[in-house]
Amino acid sequence: MPAVTEEITQLLATWSEGDPQALERLVPLVYPELRRMARRQMAREDPNHTLQTSALINEAYLKLIDRQQTDWQDRAHFYAVAAQVMRHILIDHARRHLYDKRGGGAQHVPLEEADIKEDGRAAELVALDEALNALVKLDPRRSRIVELKFFAGLNAEEIGEVMNISPSTVQREWRAAKAWLRHTVSGQITSD
User: Fold this and answer.
1) Which tens digits make up the pLDDT trace of 4-45?
2) HEC per residue, 110-167
3) 86: closest CA among 24, 35, 11, 132?
4) For the chain, what is the domain count?
5) Number of C-beta neighbours around residue 10 at 10 A
6) Where in the sequence is the domain holding 110, given as residue range(s)?
7) Which of 16, 112, 142, 177 is 20 to 30 A (C-alpha) from 165?
8) pLDDT at 190 over 90
9) What is the pTM assigned to this prediction?
10) Cβ contacts of residue 175 below 8 Å, gap of 6+?
11) In this structure, are residues 28 and 7 in contact, taking their beta carbons and an 8 Å threshold?
């Protein structure tokens, strides 16, 4: 596994320097992890969600290709950025869904056909995004830990590696951030 990790890191560096062949060799190595991340994200969504796992992966992939000039530190950095990209795709999708449900699409749907579960999940995701945006202003490190754990699915050791902090610090900060988010998000959802 360390050989693959090194290969991914080297290919990321070569790709960011402008070598298109590096991207061709990189994709098969990172795709399984991107798929795992996308499945993890979609498992939290309502089964009737209109965005499919493959669409999330494809959209994330296209956005990641646009970041060729990024100074990739290593594979963990790449996956952290991929998680952030997926988060934004899901948030944008949730916002569009809520916009359409509130009349943006101007389509009449009988109440019994309305997808209430997806509305609730979309509202929760938007509330989580708003809470994370508030948390980043208060404590950027905790916000980053939440993003890496929740959206990238990284464990404490991997997060520690990405952020240059100990796994025990990651766990302590994760618990604090989770409590803060739970309090903040529940206040946002119940106040609507």
Assistant:
1) 888 999 999 999 888 889 999 999 999 998 998 888 888 877
2) CHHHCCHHHHHHHHHHHHHHHHHHHHHHHCHHHHHHHHHHHHCCCCHHHHHHHHCCCH
3) 35
4) 1
5) 15
6) 2-191
7) 16
8) no
9) 0.68
10) none
11) no
